[in-house]
Amino acid sequence: MSYENDPKSPYYIDNRARVAAIQASMKARGLDLYLGSRPRTLSWVLDAFCPWRSYLAIPRSGDPVVFTFIVDSTRLADETWLPLDNVRAYAPMGGQDQVSVISAYVTEELGLSGGRIGAETGLSVYTPEGNLSKYEWDALEAALPGFALENAHELVDELQLVKDPGTMARFREASRMVDEGQKAARAALEGGGWKGMTETEIAGIGALAMRRAGSVSEWNFAGLNEISSGYRTALGACTPPTNRVFQAGEPLMLDFHSMFKLALGDYSHNYLIGPASKTLRRHADNFVDLVDTVLKAYRAGRTPSDMASVMSARAEALGCADYVYPGCEHGIGLFGDEWRIGARNDGPFPYWTDPDHVYRKDEMLICAMQYAAPADSVGFRYENPIIIGEGGCEWLSKFPLAIEEIA
Amino acid sequence: MGELFGYLDADWTAEARKRLAEALDPEKMNGITTSMADIYEACPDGRMRWMFVRCEGGRLASFEVGEGEAPEAEFRILGSYETFAAISRGELGSQKALMTGKLKLKGNMAKALRLAPLADRINKVLSTIPAKY
Predict the structure, then answer these.
(1) Which residues have C-beta within 8 Å of that of residue B130, sequence separation ≥ 6?
(2) Which of A65, A82, A118, A399 gives the lowest tally of CB atoms within 10 Å of its CB?
(3) Which of B64, B63, B80 is closest to B22 using CA atoms?
(4) Set of chain A residues whose Cβ sits within 8 Å of the Cβ of B78
């Protein structure tokens, strides 16, 4: 497959315009080079899947150069828009290690003898964030005397917040695929199909349906398709599926992930395997009400703390505030761009979502809500990518919001 | 034992040019167009030398040896005279020399990867030249 990006396609992204925007920010900040290492930066600029440690060197003008692990360099060159000569490999060979190829590019190819290099570092709850390590930072500074590295990731993060039409179209398509997975899972579960079925099996059924619909990956670092059943639904966070067999009278959470042109589908749906007790039904009704309340409240001008208040107030009114996790969203962008919301570190806790970030039109986030009542062995999760609008939001997964009883 | 050529001297260069032109099959060379300069550091006389190879359409277009600034080339390989001599004698593979850091490559490794077998074919031809080092 070669890189395809037809300007008439709904999925078109003007990659050179993205580079130009970064270069304008570099100029404003006085940077001579930007060195991206996080997957979110690589995806956004290369418009290609880049899973191995890679370094994207963006000069003040002209096309960037990417250095990636040698085994993947030819594939990456085939899938990115960058010209072949701009996709380079690093390897354990003389003059070809990571630091040598980057420093040679800076000094010999760009002809720079000193200046300021913007790099990416920080703190993340997401393990594969891709921040430059201390070793890399020190080694590059040692190899490039006369240059100073400085943390400049916010320059790229700011540009990634508001999504362009091509990116939003890709996300809509990824969500269509994830809905196909949920439909297939529901069909497999109903009519007693759940009997004898395991978490891993339903994860695979969903994955197959999404792949058939065009998804290329279940992408999620926390276990691909995250599944929990029974008491495990109340354990909270992220869960790769286990071989646990479904039982009558217990909850089931299906959190499916799809990927289309680096855009991420992420939709969590919940069921009660019948017969459901009144207690389970009450928890389920509370959760659906909460999600519905929150989804209807998102719009431009709102902030994360504002939305948390909306959720808390409704939970209090429903009498389920003790079961609701704080916060109702996480960030989302092309592959690797997940978690915090906001670009700058001016919130109260560095590298966490800025509670006072003011949502703008065409920003995207995952409406993410978690409910856990361990004493009743029940929990639920809702996740759905949404696009912020002036008067509301567009939720991308169209799977009906409900917690149905599956017989 | 037949005639021994002085490694990198004019006669050796002429012999190398002749053998490469005869041995390199454009088809087996994948019709490649590229150039490569080997930079010999610390030659026995203390000087630096270079060996320049250019292929066009898989055929040998230029093969030169000289001193001073090497011609512009798509790839530059830097190493000691001893390392290059060992490669030309067939005692050391160029890939092993790169992997052990005895040679340093300047150029796009992603492209060099595709050219490595072709460079090996050139070295194999050079290793057939009886030479004194």
Answers:
(1) B1, B2, B3, B4, B5
(2) A399
(3) B63
(4) 94-95
Q: Tokens standing for A393? A: 């939001």
B5-123 CATH: 3.30.1050.10
The residue of chain A nearest to residue B114, with distances taken between CA atoms, is A74
**What CATH number belongs to A162-406?**
3.90.230.10
Residue extents of the structural domains in chain A: 15-160, 162-406
Q: Please answer yes or no on whether A100 and B104 come within 8 Å at the CB atom.
A: yes
State whether A95 and B105 contact (CB < 8 Å).
yes
How far apart, in whole angstroms, are the C-alpha atoms of residue A56 and residue A37? 6
Q: Which residues contact A306 (CB under 8 A, 6 or more apart)?
A: none
The residue with tokens 């009450």 is A282
**Phi/psi at A192 (nearest 5 deg)?**
80, 5
CATH 1.20.1250.20 fits A15-160, yes or no: no
Strand A251-260 vs strand B75-80: parallel, antiparallel, or unpaired? unpaired
- pLDDT tens digits, A214-264: 999 999 888 899 999 999 999 976 789 999 999 999 999 999 999 999 999
Which residue has 């200046």 as its token pair?
A115
Q: Which of B109, B114, B115 to mutate to test the interface with A (most CBs of A within 10 A)?
A: B109
What ipTM was reported for this prediction?
0.79
